């Protein structure tokens, strides 16, 4: 069975859900926000798009899922206000593996849209959010169809379990770890590195 068909974060909003255990990811999003803001501002000031298409790769489900989209909308609003132009419409694609809890994301959209209207006094451009399930190590979008792609805490996931990480007796070489650690054997590093080269070329 393919990893992408079974791998997913715990959905919903229960105690063990990803939604309740994603503060580190939120901190990373906040840390890189100035870089993202500068990029979006430059993009809008250069292209003056009427319709802006973005994607968030590895969006998961929970409070962080729509945080990036919300930040981008605020930045677009501010940039176009400075340019004295009406803001563009926004089409945002949320991407994650097929088993992601997109239902929880979709249930949060009415509240998200209401909050946008309140925060921007109904002056932001229309916003359309859709899911694009699938692995970003394969083709997700047509050529030249996106203006901006964001990913936070997802690109380090490899597309498949590297071969050669199990002994002939079925014992794992990377005992007790799901990542490369100080205690990992050199064979774990070499097999993972070899796998990553092929994976990053397809990305």
Care to describe what's here?
With 203 residues, the chain is α/β, with parallel strands linked by helices. It contains five helices and four strands, in the order ααβαβαββα. It has a four-stranded parallel beta sheet with strand order 3-2-1-4, with helices on one face. Strand 2 (89-95), helix 4 and strand 3 (127-131) form a beta-alpha-beta unit. Helix 2 (23-47) packs parallel to helix 3 (67-82). The protein is elongated, with a radius of gyration of 19 Å.
Lay out the secondary structure.
Elements: H1 3-6, H2 23-47, E1 51-57, H3 67-82, E2 89-95, H4 102-119, E3 127-131, E4 148-151, H5 186-202
Helix pairs in contact: 2-3
Oligomer: single chain
Order of helices and strands: HHEHEHEEH
Spans of at least 5 consecutive residues with low confidence: 3-8
Q: Give the N-terminus to C-terminus distance in angstroms.
A: 21 Å
Structural class, please? alpha/beta
The number of strands is: 4
- Which percent bin holds the helix content? 25-40%
Major sheet size, sense and barrel closure: 4 strands, parallel
**Overall geometric form:** elongated
- Count of helical stretches: 5
CA gyration radius, whole angstroms: 19 Å
The strand line-up of the biggest sheet is: 3-2-1-4
What's the average pLDDT? 79
Strand residue percentage: 5-15%
